[in-house]
Amino acid sequence: MKRVTRMLPALFALVVATACAAETAPVPQARPTAAPQGQAAMAPAAATTTPSPTPTATTTAKIKLGIADITPMGEKTEKVGVGFPIIVTFDRDVRTRDRATVEALLQVESDKPNEGAWRWVSARKIIYRTKAYWKPYQKVLFTARLSELPGNTGGKNVSRRFAVGAQNISHVDTRKHVMKVYRNGKLAKKIPISAGRGGLVRGGVDVYLTTSGTHLTMGKKAVETMTSSWMGVTDPKDPRYYKEEIPWAVRISDSGEYVHQSAGYYQYLGRSNQSHGCVRATPEGAKWFYTIAQRGDVVKITGTKRKLQWNNGWSYWQLSYSQWKKGSALK
């Protein structure tokens, strides 16, 4: 017996950038060829949440609605981490009075039981997050039954199946200068790191501090170009100017934070915080982390005074589940 979950959205707010900001926005990356994740076997789908009310035909008589984008990619393209959100972008605005009707047509089914909820983040975007992390090595099916939307003549149902890979949960202690990576509950590696040193305050925020909180990995590049343009420094003659090609960069926020290989300065790794906000790691440690990283992996950072905002990237686990559900249109 399959039970279904239907919920709502919340939108990204770009916060103050850190000095690790990349030259270009991150793009989805294919899974690394190294470090196989194991196969996710399909089992009969189990409960994911409470059923939602039947849509009413009165409020959406003139709505014509489709889906412009679904994130992340499907099971044949990537495996995702246990914290991954489902982000749905519609092709037009959904009026406030119509959102409950639309949300009731969205369902999530997983092989292994889990409760979840949608949160509206804008008129076009809705995001699904679970109450607890997804269980690893399973399939999750998202379906939007848009053909059932009253007045949506010609509307088509849309679905995507996701493959959850290994459970990767990393703990970054900025005071002890170490990153511990746990795979499927077991400590896989300890990596010496250097986090944000602090010292550049803008708008009351020390943008040189790494943000403390529960991050999710959002994408990665084997080499990322990082520049000082985020703080308005573009003249190479300016002593604050920099433009560096940084290896093994895994993005963890919208404000420019990455876990990446340190560009030299290896003497600080494991000893002190000297970065502009990113988590710098040893060449071997950074490459290993890059290789296993899946979008939606959990990276918990502690030890700084700068708090991660819930809408900075995919940092939705910064909200309690009860707070998260307040963004749903289904009451």
From TrEMBL:
<dbReference type="InterPro" id="IPR041280">
    <property type="entry name" value="Big_10"/>
</dbReference>
<feature type="signal peptide">
    <location>
        <begin position="1"/>
        <end position="21"/>
    </location>
</feature>
<feature type="compositionally biased region" description="Low complexity">
    <location>
        <begin position="32"/>
        <end position="58"/>
    </location>
</feature>
<dbReference type="InterPro" id="IPR038063">
    <property type="entry name" value="Transpep_catalytic_dom"/>
</dbReference>
<keyword id="KW-0573">Peptidoglycan synthesis</keyword>
<dbReference type="InterPro" id="IPR050979">
    <property type="entry name" value="LD-transpeptidase"/>
</dbReference>
<dbReference type="GO" id="GO:0016740">
    <property type="term" value="F:transferase activity"/>
</dbReference>
<feature type="domain" description="L,D-TPase catalytic">
    <location>
        <begin position="168"/>
        <end position="302"/>
    </location>
</feature>
<keyword id="KW-0133">Cell shape</keyword>
<dbReference type="Pfam" id="PF03734">
    <property type="entry name" value="YkuD"/>
</dbReference>
<protein>
    <submittedName>
        <fullName>L,D-transpeptidase LppS</fullName>
        <ecNumber>2.-.-.-</ecNumber>
    </submittedName>
</protein>
<feature type="region of interest" description="Disordered">
    <location>
        <begin position="30"/>
        <end position="58"/>
    </location>
</feature>
<feature type="active site" description="Nucleophile">
    <location>
        <position position="278"/>
    </location>
</feature>
<keyword id="KW-0012">Acyltransferase</keyword>
<dbReference type="Pfam" id="PF17964">
    <property type="entry name" value="Big_10"/>
</dbReference>
<comment type="pathway">
    <text>Cell wall biogenesis; peptidoglycan biosynthesis.</text>
</comment>
<keyword id="KW-0732">Signal</keyword>
<dbReference type="InterPro" id="IPR005490">
    <property type="entry name" value="LD_TPept_cat_dom"/>
</dbReference>
<feature type="active site" description="Proton donor/acceptor">
    <location>
        <position position="260"/>
    </location>
</feature>
<keyword id="KW-0808">Transferase</keyword>
<keyword id="KW-0961">Cell wall biogenesis/degradation</keyword>
